[in-house]
Amino acid sequence: MSLYEEHTMIVTDLIDIAALLREAHRPEAGGIVLFSGEVRNNHKGRAVQFLEYEAYVPLATKMMKAIVDEARQRWGLHFAAAVHRVGKVEISESAVAVVTAHGHRKEAYEANQFIIDAIKRDVPIWKCEHYADGSHEWGANAEAMKTAYLPGNQHTTAQ
The pTM is what? Predict the structure, then answer.
């Protein structure tokens, strides 16, 4: 059984980027694209210590799978996966990873961008930036879901 058997999921542990990339290799794939959304140490001129993500896991998982399935069909992908982490994510760790494989690079790139953009825009996953000055700020990368689910509620953490 592979580490990312489901290929699209919400996890609480470190995302093993190398394992995810290894799973994408297919003999018919001439182009494999990996996107890793990593935690940086700054945001708008402020020092960031770490990020914290929360999600409405059942809906987020269902939506991510639908997005990946749509990309598989639209671009005829040989492989596609999306993994998003919840909980505390340290500087330089991956918060989200998307891998796509196709016979050609153009389709692999387009599908990868479609998947990450749709996840950031539509999926109920929220991030809280924790700053070096001790303050923190919640932001939502799921614009359409902002008012439907509030971070900090019991139903928003990984199960």
Answer: 0.85
